[in-house]
Design a protein that fits this description.
346 residues; 8 strands; binds iron/sulfur cluster; 14 helices; alpha/beta
């Protein structure tokens, strides 16, 4: 993986005024991770990184463009948004186009084929376990070669087994090559087999065991909403699973109050947590692109990806549907085929 191609493409697009800004990653302060950023000048784009530290799904940041309120007298900038995507991110961009949140021409997509990204906490742990210097992370460069993640710093190299330090989602990735792009960086990567080994343990549970497992997991949820906020498929302004009382003021009319749905109380009780997660999963059915971001950001380690993967598997097997593979409008819950089975899912 190389930063150079991405920097060149993004800075040229910005210099030529072909995009209004470009969404990419820069190195994070801890040296191990990358953080999403917006480049508005070629110089800023020259700070971009593309390496296995780029875990963030950049599609989540597209929605900010919709929230921006124009200043008085300001004309809207109709140029496309430039965005850097991996395979999984590209599906989220495609989903947003399928759902008409953006039109295809509103996004300029620079895709990169992807061998995987690191699970930063795991890499940090492995780093500390070997007693490697924390200061070295200032110059850290990461790459993946074969089955190893190579960390280069201060003219030295440290190698880690890829399976030990990459994200779980990358071990089963069927779309390492962007499904949609205007420009592409990198050689095609072999997709992982079409299988769900990560679900075997949960699927072997009896209904009672599964109920107990999820009740226990959801009882840990502090309802911080990080899973929802990071999700590239969650873009509603009024969220049906978030209590909206705080938005009420002295001038809120009874009609406005009635219009604000309150399906879950703010206090994270076991019952409301269940309601929150099941409602959210229902909204994600046939839409979730399995990017795994909700799982990654959960501060209490709830394995949300087990739910999203199970949903993906059941939707594929039952309805032969998979979201975000192209830009043609598709919506599982809004479409009906005569041969659709009645079995349901979950
Ligand atoms: S899930 Fe696939 S595309 Fe996404 S980071 Fe992992 S290997 Fe890359
Ligand atoms: S990120 Fe985790 S703790 Fe926060 S709301 Fe989601 S599941 Fe609950
Ligand atoms: S995996 Fe999680 S964050 Fe990603 S699209 Fe699905 S629900 Fe949203």
């Amino acid at each position: 993986m190389s930063n150079d191609q991405l920097r060149k493409i993004a800075s040229t697009l910005l210099a030529e005024g072909k995009v209004k800004y470009f969404l990419g990653n820069v190195r994070g302060a801890d040296g191990f991770s990358s953080k999403p950023t917006t480049a508005r000048t070629p110089e800023e784009a020259n700070e971009f990184v593309w390496d296995p530290s780029c875990v963030n799904n950049m599609a989540s940041y597209l929605h900010e463009d919709k929230k921006r309120i124009l200043k008085r007298g300001e004309e809207p900038d109709t140029r496309p948004i430039g965005i850097f995507v991996k395979g999984c991110d590209s599906r989220s961009v495609a989903l947003n186009i399928q759902e008409h949140i953006f039109e295809r021409e509103q996004i300029y997509i620079v895709g990169a084929t992807c061998e995987g990204v690191v699970d930063v906490p795991k890499l940090k742990k492995a780093w500390m376990k070997r007693g490697l210097p924390v200061a070295a992370t200032n110059t850290l460069q990461l790459s993946i070669v074969g089955n190893e993640v190579i960390a280069s710093f201060d003219g030295k190299q440290e190698k880690f087994a890829k399976d030990d330090v990459i994200m779980q989602r990358c071990k089963v990735c069927r779309y390492p090559n962007p499904v949609i792009h205007d420009e592409l960086i990198g050689e095609q990567v072999e997709p992982k087999p079409d299988a769900y080994p990560d679900l075997e343990e949960m699927e072997a549970m009896s209904p009672a065991e599964r109920w107990a497992f999820w009740t226990d997991q959801f009882s840990n949820c502090v309802r911080c909403l990080a899973c929802r906020n990071v999700c590239p498929a969650c873009y509603c302004r009024e969220c049906s699973v978030q209590r909206s009382n705080p938005a009420f003021g002295p001038r809120t009319t009874p009609t406005e109050k009635m219009a604000k749905a309150q399906f879950s109380n703010k206090t994270p009780t076991k019952e409301d947590n269940f309601n929150f997660h099941m409602s959210r999963m229902y909204h994600m059915t046939g839409r979730c692109t399995n990017c795994g971001e909700c799982n990654r950001v959960c501060p209490v380690g709830i394995p949300l990806r087990l739910l999203t993967r199970k949903m993906d598997k059941d939707v594929r097997e039952t309805y032969d549907h998979e979201s975000g593979l192209d830009t043609e409008p598709k919506n599982l819950l809004a479409e009906y085929r005569d041969d659709d089975p009645e079995g349901g899912f979950l």
